[in-house]
Amino acid sequence: MGLPFADQVTASGPPVASLCLRVRGPSGDMVAVAPRPDLMPRLAWVVRHRPDLAALLVVTTEAALYQAMVDRHAAELAARASEKLPDRLSARRLRRIGPKGLTTTGLTVAALAAVPLFPQILLLMSFLSVAAVRLGAATEAVRPPRRPEPLADGALPSVTVLVPLYREAAVVQDLVRNLSALDYPRDRLEVLVLMEADDRETQAAARRHLTAAPFRAVVVPDGAPRTKPRACNVGLALARGELVVVYDGEDRPEPDQLRVAAAALAADPRLAVVQARLACDHAAGAPLVTRLWALDYLALFGAVVPFLSRHGLPFLLGGTSNHFRRRALVEAGGWDAWNVTEDADLAVRLARLGWRSASIDSTTWEEAPVTVSAWVKQRGRWLKGFAVTALVHLRQPVVAVREMGVPAALALLVQLPLSLLSIAAHPVCLVLVAWGTLDGSLWQSAGSEAGDALLAAQAATLCVGYAAAFALHLAVLRRRPCRGVGLWLVPLLPLYWLLTSWALAVGLLDLSVRPHRWAKTAHGVVARPKGAPAGLDPRQDAPAVQLTGE
Question: Reading across the β-sheet that carries 58-61, which strands appear in turn?
């Protein structure tokens, strides 16, 4: 794949003044040809024998030439970036529900609730399935991580890193410093920084700081929807690497992460993607919501994802530090530009194609939300996207199960619809159990036998769920202690889960009226520890977080 003439652009070296030949074709379009050494004799022939064309020789820069080719194919790129997936696998067909749809949904929920014990049993199953995964992950947290044998430099594949940015001029300088620290041969690495056409401020920052290889600024052709996955699809069309990696602008990956990922993918030809751990590097001194976010990530990427990976089960990818085998990514059709959690959706589509996913023992440090409103906005978008992903892949449930197999289908069922149900049910069960405790009906017969049994089952399930979650987080804290994230946070997790239920309500409301709206998280709003990512250890002290903007 890739653009015509893209292989004629040098892959490394700083932007330098270079000659290019512009030829006006029959349609009047201008086509640029980059000056490789083998093209120089042709240019010389033109200068000697075609003075009419020689007058068209101009001086340009490699960056300008590259962007000119992107602009030349803008219409094709824009169309493929947002319309490539078939309707049955895309969220493009989702429409706002509206008042009529909300009324229908409410009547359906009421009808199900009228069926004796059906809703309660479904919710209890959701709680228990999520608790079972957490208990399994707690055992995984005490296992030592495994690393594949490293590849020699000569065996390393070419890598394209995609960094989509939107209104993030403040992070460009740090982005260059953090990704320049990656230990990977520069002749096999390119970094495409993808920016939207209307984001002039970030483009200006890119012109100031992206001045050397392997960085290349790309202005994404204008189009809809204006989302991260759409920008990544444009980057995929331009990418020349055998592996394709996605980072966010504020990420600080460990320097050897690309080597670890390349070795893991080389060891298993059926492996489509490997996920690095994501962690917060500014939890010390941060607000409570930031510390709980950091604890949540410690459990998810330090135990749950490795547990599913070890057992060959698919898991929902994080939005960054995904290392893809390009062939698998192209076979899956890239990202769904209409899904606000494109990472989760892509994980399901790869599983449906028979590809495997795995985790790697490497960390990427991220910026966490520092206010409750920012956290709710971010988590609400994620949960909205999980609901969208579940709706898309449950359109043909029998086909989906047949394609990915029963174990993989069950694993994704727990992570998507059942997980959402447990989040929604948590405050309801908590209120019912609290009420039963206060009025004594939980401890003595107060109604029908079925009602008493159900209330007791709810209390027992709630206790099992809490115990599983506490065991998981305590185990992961023992294995990977992190400054600013202490044991005293574990008893506060129920409050965090109630906040998650509120975020789910916000996300579902947004889904009902704006299914494709992307609620973007602001980055670059905190002062994070200085220095190279390699020097950052989660067990070391880190300076207190400082707000630098909103």
Answer: 30-33, 17-24, 58-61
**DSSP character for 28?**
-
Tell me if the pTM is above 0.90.
no
Cis preceding-peptide flag for 214 (omega within 30 of 0): yes
| Residue 41 to residue 59: CA distance in whole angstroms | 17
Report mean pLDDT in 10-residue bins for the chain, 550 residues: 34 38 43 51 64 56 73 86 89 68 53 52 81 91 84 96 95 94 95 95 94 91 92 94 96 96 96 96 91 96 95 95 97 96 96 97 94 95 95 92 96 94 87 72 55 73 91 92 90 96 94 86 71 41 37
Residue identified by tokens 């803008």 is 74
Give pLDDT tens digits for 349-402: 999 999 999 999 999 999 999 999 999 999 999 999 999 999 999 989 999 999
SS3 track for 455-492: HHHHHHHHHHHHHHHHHHHHHHHHHCCECCECHHHHHH
CB atoms within 10 A of CB 347: 27
CA 451 vs CA 124, 428, 454, 457, 463: distances in Å: 14, 16, 5, 10, 18
Residue 59, beta-bridge partner list = 19
Q: CB neighbours of 525 closer than 8 A, spacing ≥ 6?
A: 367, 370, 547, 548, 549, 550
| Residue 211 neighbours by CB under 8 Å, 6+ apart | 14, 15
Residue 352 structure tokens: 């449906």
Q: Residue-wise over 482-498: b if at least 16 C-beta within 10 A, else e?
A: bbbbeeebbeebbebbe
Q: What single letter denotes the amino acid at residue 251?
A: D
526-527 and 58-61: which strand pairing? unpaired
CA–CA distances in Å: residue 492 to residues 291, 427, 445, 488, 496: 11, 15, 32, 8, 7
